Amino acid sequence: MQRRAVTAVLAAATLLLTAGCSSDDGEDWGGGKSTSPDSSESGASAPASGQAAEETPPAKGSVKVVRTVTEGLKTPWGLAPLPEGGLLVSSRDEGTITRVDEKTGKKTELGAVPGVAPGGEGGLLGLALSPSYASDHMVYAYFTSDSDNRIVRMQYDAKRPAGEQLGAPDTVFRGIPKGTNHNGGRIAFGPDKMLYAGTGETYVTELAQDKKSTGGKILRLTPEGEPAPGNPFDSPVYSYGHRNVQGLAWDTEQRLFASEFGQDTWDELNHIKPGGNYGWPDVEGESDDSKYESPIDQWSTDEASPSGIAYAEGSVWMAGLRGKRLWRIPLKGTEESADPQAFLEGDYGRLRTVVSAGGDKLWLVTSETDGRGTPGDGDDRILELQVK
Asked: Which residues form the Glucose/Sorbosone dehydrogenase domain (predicted)?
C-alpha cells in the first residue's frame, strides 16, 4: 500500500490543531474522541474477498465544470438520476424530494417524506432507484425519524400534481441507530441488485465493532429489506468497524468502494470486502494489524471529510465537505491507487454528493446550506462535470 495523503509531520500538526474540536463536516461542534455528540463530522452475489485484482483501464486525468444545472437548493443530500431524464434530489432539513430538469434546471417538488425528523446531521439523506424502476417506479430513501434511521420506498407518479407525486412510504428496514451526528445515510443498489446502506455509529463507538448492531456498518439487503443471500454473518451486516460511511460506489469490475470520515487524523477510501473489519474505534487509517482492513488511501480530515463517491473513467471521485474539493483517486487495483489529485478546491465550497452521469460525465452537489457552510448567492447547486 502507498501512502500519499500527507507527511507524518503534517499529520501530527493537524492532530494538534484539530483534536477535540473536529467534526465530520468540518466545523467545531466541540468535544473530542469521546462518544458525546459534541465531538467530530447496486442478481449475483458480490465479488468474494480475496478476488484477484484486475487491470483497470488508464484513468483520465482531470475534470472541468461544464455548467450549473440548477441553483437555490436547500440542504441537498441524496441524488438519483432518472432513466427517463431528470434528477431526484433530497432536502435533508425540509424532508422533501424534488425533481430537477437537467436541461432547463426547473425544479418540481414531488412531495415530503412522512416521518422525517431533521436535526444535526440527520434528516432525509440518501436516495436510490429500484432495480426494477422501469416497471415499479419505486424510489428508496434513507432518513432519520424520531426513533431511528430507516429505509423506505415510495412509488413516484409524475402524472400527479406537484407536491403529491410520492405514494405512501413502505418501510423496508428500520432500527438503525440514530444520533445528533454520524447517521451515515448513503444507499445504493449494487451490480447484484441488492441494496447497500452506509450507517454511522452515532458517537457510540463500540457499536462499530458489535456485529449485532447495524450502527457503524455497511448493510446489504434485498430490495424488500431482508438480509441479502450470501451475507457473511447471516444478518444484514456486510462489513463493520466503520465510523460514518456516506459514500458507496462500484468500479467496472463490480468491486465496492466506500468513503469514511475519520475522527481527527485520517479520512479513508476503502475497498469493501464481505465480512471485513475496518478498524473503528481501534484504528483510524492504516493499520499494521492483519485483522483490520487498511484503506487504499487516506487524507487528513481538513483535506477531505468525504461524503459521496462515484466511479468514472478509471477513477473514484470523492466529494469533500471540510476539504471543499473533489478528489480523483485513480485505481491501480483493490488495495492501492495512484496519487490522488484535487480539483475545484474552494471553488464551490462544501461538496456533498457526486454521481456518475454515464461515460465521462458526473453530477456534483454542493452543501453550503447545511449549517456548516457559508452560503452565497445561488447556493446550493448541482453542477455537471466532464472528466477529461
From this structure: 73-372
Q: Is residue 210 part of a domain?
A: yes
C-alpha cell at 170: 413502505
Among 46, 6, 5, 39, residue whose Cα is nearest residue 21: 39
Residue 375, φ and ψ in degrees, nearest 5: -65, 140
**Residue whose C-alpha cell reads 501512502 in the numeric block:** 3
Give the number of other Cβ atoms within 10 Å of residue 245's Cβ.
31
User: How many domains are contained in the chain?
Assistant: 1
* 150/47 Cα distance (integer angstroms): 26
Distance CA 25, CA 31 (A): 14
pLDDT in tens, 40-80: 333 333 443 333 444 545 667 899 999 999 999 999 999 99
**CATH code for position 151:** 2.120.10.30
Pairing between β-strand 245-250 and β-strand 256-260 as defined by DSSP bridges: antiparallel
pTM of the model: 0.88
Residue 201 belongs to what domain range?
8-29+39-54+75-300
With beta carbons less than 8 A apart as the criterion, state whether 260 and 216 touch: no
